[in-house]
Amino acid sequence: MQKIMLIINPTSGGEKALDYKEKLENKAKKYFEKVDARITQKAQDATNFATEASLEHYEAVLVFGGDGTVNEVISGIAEKDYIPKLAIIPGGTGNLITKLLEINQDIDGAIDELDF
Ligand SMILES: Nc1ncnc2c1ncn2[C@@H]1O[C@H](COP(=O)(O)OP(=O)(O)OP(=O)(O)O)[C@@H](O)[C@H]1O
Q1: Confidence (pTM)
Q2: Measuring from atom 30 of ligand 1, which residue has the nearest CA?
Q3: CA-CA-CA-CA torsion for 25, 27, 32, 37, nearest 10 degrees?
Q4: Model confidence over 54-92: pLDDT tens digits?
Q5: Measured from the CB, is residue 42 less than 6 Å from ligand 1?
Q6: Is residue 64 classed as helix, strand or coil in its secondary structure?
Q7: CB atoms within 10 A of CB 103
């Protein structure tokens, strides 16, 4: 069964992240049979969730957050035997990584453009 893990930092970018949770889940359901949303509560949660996604062979990880959260997720999947696909929605304040990757800086636009 194809599964995706959503990793959402609820404090990113002025606490608006959870407003997008349902939209993210609905989008992910178009591509994956199982959508597993994880909400971070503290530093390192995103790393631990991402490591779990690697070890359990999730097809993809979608991270909603700023550069700090993206950094944590990359740390969690880096140098593992299995590395899930990574999707990033710019939910933080700076979002430098997504700017460099030329990901749409409008959150709704970035979600609409997601394609697995
Ligand atoms: N529930 C939480 N409460 C407080 N801090 C958290 C929580 N979940 C994760 N964090 C921490 O918040 C940090 C900053 O998050 P993130 O970079 O996504 O948002 P940001 O404030 O928009 O920052 P940036 O300016 O880098 O875009 C993360 O590195 C993480 O350690």
Answers
A1: 0.95
A2: 43
A3: -20
A4: 999 999 999 999 999 999 999 999 999 999 999 999 999
A5: yes
A6: strand
A7: 18
Residue of 6, 18, 40, 62 best suited for mutating to test ligand 1, as the one with most atoms within 8 Å of CB: 40
Residue 34 phi/psi, 5-degree rounding, is -125, 125
CA of 62 to the centre of ligand 1 (A): 16
SS3 label, residue 47:
helix
Tokens of 11: 């404090």
Is the CB of 43 inside a 6 Å radius of any atom of ligand 1? yes
Q: First vs last Cα of the chain: how many Å apart? A: 15
Yes or no: say if 84 and 54 are a contact pair by the CB < 8 Å rule. Answer: yes
